[in-house]
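Ticket 4471: requesting a sanity check on a complex prediction with NDP. Repro inputs:
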Amino acid sequence: MKRFAVIGHPVAHSLSPLLHGKAYDLLRLDCSYESFDILPEALPAALRDFREQGFSGLNVTLPHKESMAKLVDTLTDEARAVGAVNTILVRGDRIAGDNTDVHGFAASVASVRKSIEGQTVLLLGAGGSARAVVYALLSRFKPSEIVVVNRDEDRGRDLLRHFADHAGDAKLTSGSVEPAGLSPLLDRADLIVNCTSLGLSPAVEGCPVKDDTVFRPEQVVMDLIYTPLRTRLIALATKSGARTISGLEMFLHQGARSFELWLGQPMPVDAIRPVIMNELERQQKESRQHP
Ligand code: NDP
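Returned structure tokens:
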């Protein structure tokens, strides 16, 4: 049997065991997928243990993605550029680190390529996920401009400096989160991506834009958050008739990419999507009943 796991702290909320476990069932694969809560200071020893116990691969979630990039033997281009690892591949006595969030985001927005190439993308947020999103946009699409706005403006500018060498012809700029500065940016962007944790359950009333924001129907709005599935931002965009993309797509596709790297075959994403959606809806109902 091949063993896989997700490691994080906390990790109990992770839907990765359900995602991968369902794929093993559907494809009748002799694999297991566990989850381990690992404290940051225990990470190096834990990695040695996983190798000794014969694990074939790991998913890595918060807060270990950046630290893991320093612990592995080799990094893929994606993991090196983003500076974070979310997938470990054990290859004999070598451990390779990859970042499948890049693929996950790129696959989620592939159907709206026309809203990216030669167009303006507005990113709300400049944390770890924003790094994967910027690298995916620059390496797989050709936006004319990426504008980053972040509460901590220095962090936003750091992110843009970090990717200056990858920008090619794309303009990388930063803007203000204050309504007066943000409003014209929201208006001229073709794709808007929320990479902040504003709106993440249980603080579902959070939203990175004002409640009276009106989007244009030809705009595309993506929220990386998928708990809840319908965030306040997604609800606002839907009300305006804009096209929306849920963070669930990125979650599914980053997992599918890890699966393929480990097992050499595609994950049946379309068959698994409803299973994950049902679980998210069940969790949402439960949290409304027992807030
Ligand atoms: P980080 O902690 O690295 O970054 C958090 C971001 O949110 C920063 O830009 C931070 O701004 C901003 N932020 C947090 N609180 C506030 C606030 N009160 N007001 C304004 N801005 C705020 O997290 P990640 O980048 O890893 O994740 C961000 C979100 O994306 C999370 O909700 C996560 O669940 C989701 N995600 C989804 C994935 C998917 O597969 N769909 C994959 C990865 C993440 P500042 O710098 O000013 O603190």
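Notes from triage: Residues 101, 104, 125-130, 150-152, 155, 195-198, 200, 224-226, 247, 250-251, 254 surround NDP (CB under 6 Å). Leaving this open until the requester confirms.
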